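Researcher: We plan to redesign the surface later, but first we want a full-length starting point. Tokens attached.
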């Protein structure tokens, strides 16, 4: 499982453990595992990965067949007591949870982006920003385009009066 450089990506860890990102981040938080950063990418070392493996094994031991049967019986009794209104509330709650899962990465990216400066961006993105800013700046487009744009604005304003 461990790559030659000893770095294990979160994706590889999730794949090996058979878990989703929500479970992965919950487990790393619970175990106090802080990923290493190299070139802006997160990695685990073998010791951290072993902690995750051991945690997964301990959870599997707790979920033995007897406990699952008891849980199933208790859950069946609870389900029989759920009213239609409560069922709708449960569906709504499930939808809200799924919506959070579907938007969490984009929200995180949006919050991170709000704190970034031009110099924080990769060189190709810096160039893209400069190109767009230059194209949007009338002074850089030359006097003829700026003059044409100004004339069009004045003409539109006269028609609106």
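Model: Full-length starting sequence:
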């Amino acid at each position: 499982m461990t790559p030659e450089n000893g770095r294990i990506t979160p994706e590889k860890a999730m794949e090996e453990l058979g878990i989703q990102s929500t479970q992965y981040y919950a487990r790393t938080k619970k175990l106090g595992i802080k990923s290493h950063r190299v070139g802006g990418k997160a990695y685990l070392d073998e010791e951290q990965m072993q902690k995750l493996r051991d945690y997964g094994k301990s959870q599997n031991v707790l979920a033995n067949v007897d406990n699952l049967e008891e849980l199933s019986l208790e859950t069946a009794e609870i389900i029989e007591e759920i009213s239609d209104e409560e069922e709708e509330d449960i569906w709504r709650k499930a939808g809200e949870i799924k919506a959070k899962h579907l938007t969490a990465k984009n929200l995180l990216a949006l919050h991170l982006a709000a704190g970034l400066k031009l110099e924080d961006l990769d060189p190709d993105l810096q160039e893209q920003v400069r190109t767009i800013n230059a194209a949007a700046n009338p002074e850089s487009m030359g006097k003829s385009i700026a003059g044409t744009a100004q004339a069009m604005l004045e003409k539109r304003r006269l028609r609106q009066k």
